[in-house]
Amino acid sequence: MEKTMSHFDSVTLAPADPILSITEAFKADPNPEKINLSVGVFVDDSGVTPILETVREAEKRIVKTNATKSYLPMTGSPNYAALTQRLCFGDALADSLGSRIVTAHTPGGTGALRVAADFINANLESKNIWLSNPTWANHKGVFAAAGLQAKSYAYFDQATLRLDYPAFIESIKAIPAGEVVVLHACCHNPTGADLAPAQWDEVAAIAAETGWIPLLDFAYQGFGTDIEGDAHGVRAFAKSGLPLFVCQSFSKNIGLYRERVGALQIVTGSEDETKRVVSQLKIAVRTNYSNPPAHGGVIVETVLGDAELRARWIEEVAAMRTRIHQVREQFVDSLAAAGVSRDFSFLKDQMGMFSFTGLTKEQAITLREEHSIYIVDSGRINVAGITSQNLPRLTQVLKGILD
Ligand code: LMR
Asked: Of the chain's two ends, which shows fewer C-beta atoms within 10 Å, N or C?
């Protein structure tokens, strides 16, 4: 039969997502010994991503109290705004900033980034957005989709697999006033190489001097040092009186991945600025998804708004963080005990779920195709995916590949 013309003939095959496509391939792999170290999802030692106990409790309460499924306001509920501001900035700073903080409840951290990007494109003069080299594989796509031009600043030393602080500082000092600079507030994705508190203070001073605008991607609060310590950078900028964007995610720290819950916090210079910023933010929200999905947001409000549940949740975050730190230690020790010649001790110093292993793309492909071990092609691994069950095989395979 003759092929008929289709309006879709012009549709070309897009490249697969560098992170999520690896999990798709993992799911399709029949090997019972397969290991997924790609997407940033926490699993416990039995390989399960649990629903937090505090989330289960919150959902029980919500079932009893929920009275309507009518729309939320475009930027979400005022209570959600107040509670997420306090988590982000701390009580004292949230109080002193008062009406200078604008909040939008967004579908996940990615939603917060996209709303911020649309706001920047529509309202700020510069269309440049500065990203760390390397950065989260989706940053460039999100900002480009909103019409912004991605630029990159130095961050990581590929030779030592550690932060290159002098190169980073030199690079950000040269960024022009009025351009937006995306920084990872903690648990740098993909490298796990974070700034120390004093370094954050220096970076905030540089922003104040040069006049560039910070945008902090804050997806892992509580997974680095603790809830308050991980907010040091965000709060250093907020104290400096500069305009600031923060994109919060509750996927990891409240385990609400599939509920898509996040927030965009914008710190403005005055109450008058706040009015204008809110009005523009509503346009960005309305033209993307109208208003946020409620369920995950009510869970966040219930957990953060109840002193007893909030205290229990802080402990649950601490337990996830402790497991990640322990796994890092076990992984490095296991590689050393197996006689792997390369020194992986840098993995112990890195923060959060991710580390850059220094493995090449070819090695990542070999791991995937020959051993059913799934890591991102950049060599990034999600250390939280390592369990006592899969560690021995992972170690042996890596030894075989590296030595
Ligand atoms: C990751 O980097 O793996 C996570 O942030 C999940 C995602 O959406 O990519």
From this structure: N
pLDDT in tens, 112-145: 999 999 999 999 999 999 999 999 999 999 999 9
Is residue 252 part of the annotated active site? The answer reads yes
Distance 39 CA to ligand 1 centre (A): 5
Tokens matching residue 100 = 């200078």
For the question of residue 157 being annotated catalytic, the response is no
How much is the average pLDDT of 170-193? 97
- Using a 6 Å CB cutoff, which residues line ligand 1? 19, 39-40, 136, 138, 189
pLDDT (mean) for 310-338: 97
Residue in 246, 245, 234, 242 with CA at minimum distance from that of residue 269: 242
Identify which of 381, 396, 395, 399 has the alpha carbon closest to the alpha carbon of residue 37: 381
Q: What percent of the chain has pLDDT over 70?
A: 99
pLDDT at residue number 2 = 65
Structure tokens at 106: 């967004």
Q: Which of 130, 136, 200, 313 is catalytic?
A: 136
- What is the distance of C-alpha 265 from the center of its chain? 15
Distance 138 CA to ligand 1 centre (A): 8
Categorize the per-residue pLDDT at 4 as very low, low, confident or very high, splitting at 50, 70 and 90.
confident
Alpha carbon distances (Å) from 295 to 64, 69, 110, 218: 13, 9, 17, 21
What is the residue with the minimal CA distance to atom 5 of ligand 1? 40
The pair of structure tokens assigned to 114 is 């996209």
Pairing status of strand 35-36 against strand 373-374: parallel
Dist. CA 70 → ligand 1 center (Å): 31
**At a CB cut-off of 8 Å and minimum separation 6, what does 314 contact?**
222, 227
Distance between CA 332 and CA 399 in Å, rounded?
Answer: 12
For the CA of 190, the nearest atom of ligand 1: 2
Please report the atom of ligand 1 found closest to the CA of residue 138: 9
Please indicate whether residue 313 is annotated as part of the active site: no
